[in-house]
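User: I'm new to structure prediction. If I give you an amino acid sequence, what do you actually give back? Let's try with this one:
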Amino acid sequence: MPKDTKADQALPDISDIPHSVFANEYGFYCVPDEYRGRGIPTLLQNGKVYEPRTLRFLRRHLGNGDIVTGGAFIGDFFPALCENLAPKARLHSFEPVPVSFVAAQETMRLNGLGNVALHRVAVGAEESTVTLQIARPSGKKIAAGEKIVTDMEADDQRAISVPLVTIDSLVPKSRKVSLLHLDVEGFEQNALAGSARILNDHAPLVVLESGKAWRNRAFAETLNRLAPKAGYRCVGEIERNGIFLPA
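Assistant: Good question. You get back a string of structure tokens that encode the predicted 3D arrangement of the chain. For your 247 residues, that looks like this:
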């Protein structure tokens, strides 16, 4: 498990973040006021669900082991997925943006979710420190679209420095993983490279944000290079999420 960082120690308290609590059919969600008016927060404010077909699919195919899902954003997938987890199974997730991380923790508290392991990190192929863009040039917070950048300095206003770790390091070797779900703003390939142990040991069902046929082909090639015995193939796409089934 990643060690605590100075960034972790400087996390704001939820009481210091203006926010609202919204609800839909699955549970309650903490939405920081600075995220209001964006896509996912607006859906939650109106009692709706983000990517409802994908979420229903995931709930039906969680398997009997742990699941990895991320980035977490404000934990909007947590209540629905945790509700259908197998007994003693855990949900492992990650969220590097401080405000989103704290909001996700509050979402966990609001729903009484004791089976979530949430880490304030980004994920990739190897351990390092990276710069994450959290706001546009105008200063407007991105909210759920933050991405790793190489052409911007960390200044705490538009970009922050965050630890990068592998997914393999987040999940103890003793835990069986039956589902890997990633939406990391174009860095899915790097995140997969840091999941090779899990892919080889457990051959989980894999769901990746895609939206393009060529991306799905590239993902399938990467999965089979990392875990050649698993025999992964793309079997469809739901709401821009490619579904990859092991043989």
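You can read the tokens as a compact description of the fold. Here is one thing that stands out. The longest strand covers residues 159-165.
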